[in-house]
Amino acid sequence: MSGRPHADAQHRPKSVIAGVLFHVLGGNGLADEGGVFLPLTPWAWTLLVVGPVALLWRRACPVTVFAIAAAASIGFATFAEPSWVYAVAPAVALFQIARNGRLTAAVVSGGAAYAAYLLICGFFADRLGLDPGVRPGLREALLLAVGMVLMVFLGSASKSRAEHMAEIMKVRAERARAREEQEKRQASEERLRIARELHDVLGHHLSLINVQAGVGLHLMERQPEQAREALTAIKTASAEALREVRAVLGVLRTEDEAAPRQPALGLSRLEDLTADAGLPVETKVTGDPRDLPPEVDRAAYRIVQEALTNVRRHAGPGAAARVNVDYLPTTLHLGIRNDGTDASPPGAPAEGHAGTGIAGMRARAESLGGQLEAGPVDGGYLVSVLLPTPKEEC
């Protein structure tokens, strides 16, 4: 009995101490009342103590421990009147057998110990020369049988309860893992959203700043007034970029910080977007304008912004663009067309560097269940987007 039995001894001393106290104090009290018919010799004390001490290993070897405890208690019962005070250890051991899920072993072990007690201290008491006071009466025999059945029942019930609690803990652990995975997934999606927002914001405004800076440098000497207008546009674009970056990063603010005060980005700000695009933009809205789901409204704004940024980057000087916004019954259609002479696609590789404009717009549309098509058309380039807008969400 090593390994796990020793662990039992370290973690389950209370039942051993209680068993020893019940047996020793109860046996001593029984002797003081004349219920013990032999002197309490070291052998008698050993019989009282051996059962409780054996409980140290009741989890690892419950049947063996019950046999030892029952034999010691029956041995003491051969010179003492029937009493529960020296039967605590076998009762605990029988409970443990049932709690371990060994119901048959508990019934067989309990029945064998019960029969042995009745045979030794009842039927064969005279032949063994035992004191008549050790004989159990009908009342004692019935109480002992009820007590043993109760121990088996309580052990089985304790096992069922332990299994139920283990199942509850397992379900809670699975829910906690699922919640943790969901939080990680949401955090990953939020990082991706922020990355897309920052790409759109910085790409649009920095591209505009770059164009206006080039114009300013070109006109600085010959047409200073137009250069001043270019610098003013740079200042406006940079201020707008800072505001939008703050709005994008607003989700990272702490709870006690104020929320961004600027209005949410959406098609309601389309006029401002096209006015600051850095190239001529014609806007046409068809259908009945309506309130869109916030995520669709923001995605539509960002797609138009990215498309205009790519037009400015790739269409060449003198480029112009047309933006069509069609409010259909259950969808929103966006069409951004480049009428420049350079038909290289927005977001395509430029100057040896691979762009991400088309891929980013397509990913944004598909994340909402929409679709995006892009390609050359009539010497220019067309980006066509469909975003679902169910009526019940509007």
From TrEMBL:
Residues 190-256 form the Signal transduction histidine kinase subgroup 3 dimerisation and phosphoacceptor domain. The chain crosses the membrane at residues 36-57, 64-85, 105-125, 137-157. Pfam families: HisKA_3. It comes from the Bacteria. GO terms for cellular component: membrane. Residues 161-198 form a coiled coil. This is histidine kinase. It comes from Paractinoplanes atraurantiacus.
